[in-house]
Write a structure and sequence with these properties.
The protein is mainly α and 135 residues long. The protein has two domains: 73 residues, 434 Repressor (Amino-terminal Domain), CATH 1.10.260.40; 49 residues, no CATH class. The protein has eight helices and no strands.
Length: 135
């Protein structure tokens, strides 16, 4: 790719595919969730069209990430960084509120597969039930 716009489109394509993979969703799911036309999203993934800024914002909101994570070179990411699922991002948001949640998030962020995520969700439901019983 010779110019920055072409590189951005390549990175966007790669990053969208990675976010779809880690969130276990299809282009149709993402388009619907972000309020985009499926053809529009598919054109980005196939590198046929450049996104409008407002549509890029919608997609970033859907994935729960900053825009730069959609358009940056995935190879330049620090080795310690990886794509987070929407579920992990929501835990990260709670991380700002409590040191205990921070510790929990650090453990959960190591989760690499769906079965572990399901186990953590069951544990989370158990903790919620305990809290409801206290009330």
């Amino acid at each position: 790719m010779s110019n920055t716009g072409d590189e951005m489109l390549l990175y966007l394509c790669q990053n969208i595919n990675r976010f779809l993979e880690v969130n276990n969703c299809t282009e149709a799911d993402a388009a619907r969730g972000a309020g985009l036309n499926l053809t529009t999203l598919n054109n980005w993934v196939c590198m046929k069209a450049y996104p409008r800024w407002e549509n890029l914002i919608k997609l970033a909101d859907f994935f729960g990430c900053p825009i730069y994570e959609l358009i940056e070179d995935p190879e330049r990411r620090e080795k310690g960084q990886r794509f987070l699922t929407q579920w992990q991002r929501s835990l990260l948001a709670m991380d700002q509120e409590s040191p205990k949640v921070h510790d929990l998030f650090m453990e959960i962020s190591k989760v690499e597969n769906e079965q572990d995520e399901e186990e953590f969700e069951r544990l989370l439901e158990y903790v919620r039930a305990l809290n409801r019983n206290k009330e």
